[in-house]
Amino acid sequence: MTAFELVDLCLHTEDLGRLEVPLWGDNDGVGAEPLDLPEGTVISVGLTFRLGRDIEGLTFEETRVRDGTVLSTARTVLGGFRTGGPYEVRLPAERLPLGRAHCGVYVVTSRFTDGDGRELLTLRHRMRLVPQPAPHPARRPA
Asked: Where on the phi/psi map is residue 110: left (φ > 0), alpha (ψ -120 to 50), or beta?
């Protein structure tokens, strides 16, 4: 077993439930379809992993890029973990951007490092922000 093994990376949403994230590693992502998410969706990243050694200061970093421009980087220190697992961690919820200007395909790079800054794993996935469906027109009482 390697020092760090990712078992699962998923997104939890209020409206869509639990969504599997199609990941790719060092290749160019051919065949990895973007995950479609409506603008403004509230998501929480779910991580499941195993460890081949004790790791202090395990950190998860996520960078979002659209059209070649880095839009955001979020770093979360997960803490110290002993050899074994699987461990399950759910990150705090966040709302995806609202508005048609934010719609499009984002490349998301997820990186895990230890407390000394050594990279343990880097993976990528794509998500496509799509316009929310139009609300139903209000109905007048009869």
From this structure: beta
